[in-house]
Amino acid sequence: MAYNEKVLEHYEKPRNVGSMDKNDVHVGTGMVGAPACGDVMKLQIRVNDAGVIDDAKFKTFGCGSAIASSSLVTEWIKGKTIDQALSIKNKDIAEELALPPVKIHCSVLAEDAIRSAVEDYRKKQKGGADANGN
Amino acid sequence: MNAMGLCWSCRGGVPVGAGFCPTCRVIQPPDTRMDHFQYFGLVPGFIIDLAALEVGYRERQQRFHPDLFVSRSAAERRYSMEHVTRLNEGYRILKDPLRRGEYVLSVTGFRAQTPENATPSDPAFLLEVMELRESLEEVDLKRGDAVARLGKLRSLVAAECATEIEAMTESFSAWFSAGDQKHLQVAARRVDRLRYFTRFLDELDRREEIAFTG
Fold first, then answer.
1. Which residues 62-121 in chain A show a CB within 8 A of chain B?
2. Which domains does chain B have, with CATH numbers?
3. Interface residue of A22, A40, A59, A106 to substitute, partner B, most B CBs within 10 Å
4. Looking at this predicted complex, what is its ipTM?
5. Which of these is catalytic: A5, A37, A79, A127?
6. I want to staple A90 with a disulfide (CB 3.0 to 4.6 A). Which of A102, A111, B46, B55 is the partner?
7. How confident is the model over A47-92, as pLDDT tens digits?
8. pTM to 2 decimals?
């Protein structure tokens, strides 16, 4: 299958690959997987005191579309508030990357990763000190 | 199965599922209503008689081989091809624990298709897979110890696969004896986990080949 140009662009030059300290209270870590293909995706966000995502990193083991989806998402959520980030839907990702129907689940994975990262961040904020260090 | 059908060639009676007409000996088309277990004459379930599968596969491969039908009619040649396709497909699915597990889930009606959506429900497991993937990525394939390091990862994950297969064997058996859906749920989770490990091993195979060939 031929990949779309934008997918290739992100696949060959993925943005924001890497990891942040998952024990940092300002960092939320999202971990999602696609059981159908065995892909795993980790998305991390760092949220500043103003509630804005000032950094995002990802690590994805999977197909080109999954890598492109997560790379794109890290670009999109940087500089956004948590709520703005949560408003990103898989449809937006799939449209931007022109994903074919069989690859839509990759964009779903990326959307879930945002939610999972935010959930982790919020849990840490609520949990305060005892969630830290773990 | 005692049901009878009619031979497409001589119109004589043919027991359902028979490969050849008992009267005119002409090859019959494969019965599309049969599942893979029935086709191979195996007791359905996750635990199967693997030796019987091997024997059944080889025996049918010989009987239906297209080489035997080159001088026969177009219909006979087509039926021979259909049998061989059917045979290979069934063998491929039943021989492999992952595919067999998926297949049992689908014939029981529990899950026709593997869920495509994410499973954030088990972050600890996903973290384990992520860490394995990272260790695999860190192996420098150009270095002399690459093959040994890959081998270590392989035995680690092979042991994980064995654990999953053992666990799903138990759950599937519990389901076949008690019929409780919750056992299938557990089995399905095991099948999913096995799929993650299997994909990992696929990637390991690719890297090992690169390490070997330099």
1. 105, 108-109, 112-113, 115-116
2. 4-95 (1.10.287.110), 123-213 (1.20.1280)
3. A40
4. 0.82
5. A37
6. A111
7. 999 999 999 999 999 989 999 999 999 999 999 999 999 999 999 9
8. 0.86
